[in-house]
Specification:
102 residues, mainly alpha, 6 helices, 0% strand, Cro/C1-type_HTH
């Protein structure tokens, strides 16, 4: 994403964003909230540099909890199945792109 696209997500002009980047203007709380919600950024990290850069999704936390409760053999099986699911998704998306191009 370039600076113009990023500025558009924030509802700013590219020149305003450039001035923020060089310290001639400041981000306001509204823009910080937009960045965090649009890009799943941890607000504490953005403001202070502390903590994880990205917020975990609810699904990610649930999947990790489930994975942790599985025995090692079942964990390995889940990883194999997840990779197969990902491959299937890629194939379907590629197929849809070809159909859309026709």
């Amino acid at each position: 994403m370039n600076q113009t696209e990023f500025a558009h997500h924030l509802g700013l002009s590219q020149s305003t964003l450039a001035m923020i980047e060089v310290g001639k203007r400041k981000f306001n709380d509204k823009h910080i909230k937009i960045i965090c919600s649009t890009f799943n950024i941890n607000e504490d990290w953005l403001r202070t540099g502390e903590g994880d850069m990205f917020n975990s999704s609810l699904y990610e936390k649930e999947l990790i909890d489930i994975f942790d409760d599985l025995n090692p053999e079942t964990q390995q099986y889940l990883i194999v199945m997840a990779k197969e699911l990902l491959n299937t998704q890629h194939k379907l998306l590629s197929q849809n792109r070809v159909e859309d191009d026709q």
